[in-house]
Amino acid sequence: MNKSVATKKRQARTRKPQGGLPREVKMLLWLSVPVLLIVAVVMLTKAGAEPAQTVDVSRLIYPDSPVLGKTDAPVTIVEFLDPECESCRAFFPIVKDVLAQNGDNVRLVVRYFPLHNNSVLAIAATEAAGNQGKYWEMQELLFNKQSEWGEKQTPQTALMLQYAQELGLDGDQFAKDLSDPKIMQKIERDNADAQALNVRGTPSFFVNGKEVSSLSQSALQSAIDDAK
Predict the structure, then answer these.
(1) Sign of the CA dihedral with 124 first, then 58, 108, and 134 last
(2) Do the Cβ atoms of 111 and 77 come closer than 8 Å?
């Protein structure tokens, strides 16, 4: 055999693979995919099967928390919400429907868990409107107009002032209350409680102190029925 040809064949046999992982490693990765999928399914199933936690009610309700419904209602829904949260907006009519269907048997308590750029400002707007007796009207208005002010990188203060005007509020007082230290302290307290209670997102519901583990109208109604 020609010496140069033999040398080339020897070099070809010893040449390292080019442009990617060795074949054996690729095969191992392909074989591991089904195993990883099974592990993921098992973990998700286990997470979904976790029993709902019952928490310290004293950390759920404060005298200054916004309440809708009779104070002596046998069932209390505590909702941790964020006015800028799209899921909270989507769940807003469901909460209204649940309250309407259960009448005086149920009351709603609102707590805050701000997670977006304008969340604190929006919460302050609802509280400032509440100082003038229009808390629930401002909450509904913010949800209905969330596409105007939500998901913005800059404070949407001008829009909040415009909404206050639409509700017929005293604009000067509203603007002053937007940065009221008491409102800011309430937001910080609620945020700290949400984290202490292991609230993982918004909206999150507790019915008579028991966490509603599934986010649906049927799950919320079922929790109410169990609490009656």
Answers:
(1) negative
(2) no
User: Is the pLDDT confidence value at 190 over 70?
Assistant: yes
Neighbours of 24 (CB within 10 A): 8
DSSP string, 104-158: GGEEEEEEE---STTHHHHHHHHHHHHTTT-HHHHHHHHHHTHHHHTT-SS--HH
User: CA-to-CA distance for 25 and 71, rounded, in angstroms?
Assistant: 65
Question: Which two structure tokens, joined as six digits, stand for 90?
Answer: 């989507």
CA distance 31 to 33: 6
Record the tokens describing residue 45, joined without a space.
Answer: 């199933």
Which H or E run includes 211? strand 210-211
Question: Torsion angle of alpha carbons 214, 197, 225, 103, nearest 10°?
Answer: -110
For the chain, give the number of residues: 228
User: Edge-to-edge strands of the sheet including 106-112?
Assistant: 67-68, 106-112, 75-81, 204-207, 210-211
| Residues 86-135: tens digit of each pLDDT | 999 999 999 999 999 999 999 999 999 999 999 999 999 999 999 999 99
186-to-81, 103, 105 alpha-carbon distances in Å: 14, 28, 27
The one-letter amino acid at 174: F
